[in-house]
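Quick one, T. Sequence first:
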Amino acid sequence: MAVAVACLAAGGCGSEGRAPPPVEPSTPPRLTQSERAAARAGERAIRSYCRALGHHLAGRRAAPGLGVQRRAVDGARAIALLARRKPDARYTPAQTARQLTGDTAEDLEGTNCSRRLVAELRSGL
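Structure tokens:
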């Protein structure tokens, strides 16, 4: 008991006054050019689909075709995949892949564009 008290009073036994080694900050992975391009294309496809759907619901145009919807779903999947693989990689200087995914899903929830797109995006979080 006396040894334990002496060790505690001295700042710990066995440390011999050495500080722990410094922890090197890890560098988050980077997005490749093709990954960044896929994310941009995914964003564009989602916006295009939601814009077309909005025009349709307002009675200004025909419903978006299956190809437009398919591209939007594929875009959401591509963005979600990046968030799973490289969540901390920077998409922009102010936004990580994870943030892109969450922000895009949140935007879609606010517009009621597509629950399916939101679900695809959320799968990456």
